[in-house]
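INFO  loader      accepted 1 record
INFO  loader      residues=297
INFO  predictor   begin
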Amino acid sequence: MDYSRAPDGTDGKTSSPLKLMCILAHPDDESMGTGGILARYAAEGVETHLVTATRGERGWQGPPEQNPGPGALGRLREGELRAAARVLGLRTLEFLDYIDGELDRADPVEATAKLVAHVRRVRPQVVVTFGPEGAYGHPDHIAMSQLTAAAILAAADPDFASDHRMPAHRVAKLYFLALTRPLVAAFLSVVGDMVIAVDGVQRCPVPWEDWAITTRVDAEAYWQIAWQAVACHRSQLAGLDIRRILDDVHRRLWGQPTFYRALSLVNGGRQIEHDLFEGLRQPDRIPSPARVHGIMA
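INFO  predictor   done
INFO  writer      dumping tokens
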């Protein structure tokens, strides 16, 4: 099979618009984890799309007695995510409608079919999700990594039927978020300890070694946009004195994202990439830098 050709038989480097889809678990994942790339690629004219599995109904960070409850908190966090999406210039935002903290117990066949429908609808060349370690062992993040990998495989299979009966689509590149040791240290310097108890075990951030990183994207010109998006998630910033965070720390957090290229049909090897679309661009059609907005209502 010629993997340099798209499913419709055309060349994989056609003039069709470049599209990036992030598939993540909670509101704020898109800003804290992928804000830099979403801001950069939207500014370059790439279509950016987001699928979020939950509304973060259990992610209350304030005093327990002030917790509004799952329903109200989910509505609050959805509003925060929509505000962040506008800042980042996302083209579309979709929810899978699962409950925060329960994603690893979702029916995998149903969840995969939902994701397949979104992948086939948008038809992205590049997909970004969590790595198998889930950043810091969060079960929702780990489930999202597994479900996304399954959905990419299924979306390319014309025999896999989703509810919307859309034609198969083959994603060209899949990336995992890969936090390096310096990036983990920068996060911890801001938020303190990141620990989650799962099945009686304390899980904490799992950094990737530098030699495992395949891709470093320069998003330093967009770190302020990414931070504006993070700041939309006010319910998650409770107790954090944002005034004490130095610009240099912001640049490290949002301007130097790193990834592991888990799948590519267009390139490979040990040489570090600096573009998620490496191998997919035509030299004469690199988008000009212009802010792109227009999130779906």
